[in-house]
Write a structure and sequence with these properties.
Number of domains: 2
Structural class: alpha+beta
CATH architecture of the largest domain: 2-Layer Sandwich
Helix content: 25-40%
Shape: globular
Strand content: 15-25%
Oligomer: single chain
Distance between the termini: 48 Å
CATH superfamily of the largest domain: Protein of unknown function DUF1054
Length: about 325
């Protein structure tokens, strides 16, 4: 007998307090939490295909790997977090191969992950990150970002994508505790962050930080939300790559479907319960939080408030649960 359609195809993350505690600073250089770190890595590794499958449904292919869970020469003897790293396929230059990684595995300072931007799920002692990172070593992408910011049309396109990110997303640098709201970022602020990234050596990070208390409270729902957060970052990943690698533009089409939409038979009002008709969030149900007066609105999908065109929404008459949170705009690592 076949399993019901609602059965999850992959084991859940189901994060626990022990998972977060395994990355406390006083345990980063020891093997005292080695077993817990290994267990989390195995769960994340088994869960990663869930994101890959979601991306594949949008005709986007991705490579993925887990970071090391034990102190070694490559992480300089410290394990502050466990990470899943995703690279969307487009060109050989943008996609690091596993053969290349094996050749570099003996390097004391393996920076191969930093030579291109990537999407990441990160668990550390403070919570969970779903983010896009652009390291200063990713010279092609950094150059492309700077070129866009110096061109009025390019800057407008970049800001449009950034302002469409969920309003819980922030832009800052790894290793810092603050950030700028992605939906309010300016060209000047982006340029300043890129310059500080260059001088500090820290990566530019755009994403969503879920504090451990929120992650534990919503442990049963967090899996879907983290997948949604990665999907929400795909248009930005593609925009950055489109200037550096010409064939990255082709994979943007499925994600852009969320802007094309369909006409709704009901007028959408603030506070309305709606469902998304097409695109990467098709079938999701949420609550309209804001209307922008330009044919779009902020829709709360779980814990994430997404900017979606009203033509791509329909009033939902079914009694389906939508949960919310006071966790609106978290800043960086705490």
């Amino acid at each position: 007998m076949s399993a019901p359609l609602s059965t999850p195809p992959y084991p859940p993350l189901r994060l626990t307090s022990a998972d977060f505690d395994a990355y406390r600073p006083n345990r980063a250089v020891s093997d005292s939490s080695a077993r817990q770190r290994l267990e989390l890595k195995q769960r994340m590794d088994a869960w990663a295909p869930r994101i890959v499958k979601r991306l594949d449904s949008l005709s986007i292919s991705a490579d993925v790997r887990c970071s090391d869970e034990h102190p070694n020469v490559r992480n300089k003897g410290r394990v502050d977090c466990q990470r899943l790293l995703f690279w969307l396929r487009g060109t050989e230059e943008r996609r690091p191969t596993f053969e290349k990684k094996r050749r570099l595995s003996a390097s004391v300072d393996d920076t191969s992950d930093k030579n291109q931007s990537f999407l990441a799920i990160q668990v550390d002692s403070t919570g969970v990150w779903a983010s896009l990172e652009v390291h200063p070593h990713a010279r092609q992408e950094v150059k492309a970002l700077k070129a866009r910011l110096n061109d009025p049309a390019g800057a407008e396109a970049l800001l449009d994508v950034l302002h469409r990110l969920p309003n819980q997303f922030v832009i800052g640098l790894t290793g810092e505790t603050d950030g700028v709201a992605a939906d309010r970022i300016s060209t000047a602020a982006m340029s300043e962050l890129l310059e500080r990234s260059r001088t500090s050596g820290n990566a530019l990070r755009i994403g969503w930080h879920v504090p451990r208390e929120i992650a534990l409270t919503h442990a049963d729902d967090l899996d879907d939300l983290l997948v949604d957060a990665i999907v929400a970052l795909v248009p930005l990943y593609q925009l950055i790559g489109s200037a550096a690698h010409s064939d990255s533009v082709e994979v943007a089409a499925p994600v852009d479907a969320m802007r094309q939409g369909h006409s709704s038979s009901h007028e959408i009002e603030k506070g309305a319960r709606v469902h998304v008709l097409s695109g990467p969030f098709a079938g999701k149900t949420g609550i309209v939080q804001e209307l922008d007066g330009k044919g779009g609105g902020r829709v709360l999908l779980g814990l994430l408030a997404m900017q979606i065109d009203l033509d791509n929404l329909a009033v939902d008459t079914l009694d389906r649960p939508v949960f919310s949170s006071s966790h609106r705009r978290p800043l960086g690592d705490r």
